[in-house]
């Protein structure tokens, strides 16, 4: 028993030392956000429970409130993590810097859009800081155009129809938001305000865009990992379809599996 206990304690110590950087990261991130909660509480006199509790509990609203919006936030988070994880895999390979940059840029873009969606930055936060909603939308559009221009060669080697569908529905959602908020007061459109159809159209279009973005991130992550697991000089294009359907020059590629 003593030997087993000593082995366990030794293993525990080795694991602790090996994970010190990660433990430090966990401590740092937790301290930053918890410290922010304390700062907001002390500086703005905001009750701590309003910063830490679930929004449904704070507002005393039904658990299903914001159902579609909450699912959308999960999808934003999943998209960002897929791209970040894939970028880390590519980084360890060290032979696909361009793909790694593309994945990191996708992670950053996803985080920005997800944070905006979660905290309504364009609608509530930034206008209070003197930044009009139109300026925020223009900034997001410029960032997206730069992303597409910078990595267009890589994007064209992926299932770009998915990102096209995503952007089309994001554009539709923005257009409906513009029509309802600006055009409607001057020229009411009965069809868009009959019942709750306006919310279904606007938020539904955005949700379809988010789901399409998630699927695209999954696809580019999958392709990138397969490229990284194969040969250093194989490009992303070689994996845009099923590997069995690839030209003969790619038949010698092996995707290593754990035995």
Keywords:
disordered C terminus; mainly alpha; 74% helix; 2 domains; 259 residues
Derived structural class:
mainly alpha
Number of domains: 2
**N/C terminus separation:** 33 Å
The outline comes out as globular
Describe the protein in words.
It is built from 11 helices and no strands. With about 260 residues, it is an all-alpha fold. It folds into 2 domains: about 1-65, no CATH class; about 65-250. Helix 5 packs parallel to helix 11, helix 6 packs antiparallel against helix 8 and helix 10 runs antiparallel to helix 11. The two termini are about 35 Å apart. Mean pLDDT is about 85; it is low at about 240-259.
Quick summary:
The chain is mainly α and about 260 residues long. The protein has helices at about 1-20, 20-45, 50, 55-60, 65-95, 95-120, 120-130, 135-150, 150-155, 160-185, 195-230. It is globular and about 75 Å long.
Task: Break the fold down into its secondary structure elements and pairings.
Blueprint (H helix, E strand, L loop, with lengths): L1 H17 L1 H25 L4 H4 L2 H5 L7 H27 L3 H23 L1 H8 L4 H18 L1 H4 L4 H27 L10 H33 L30
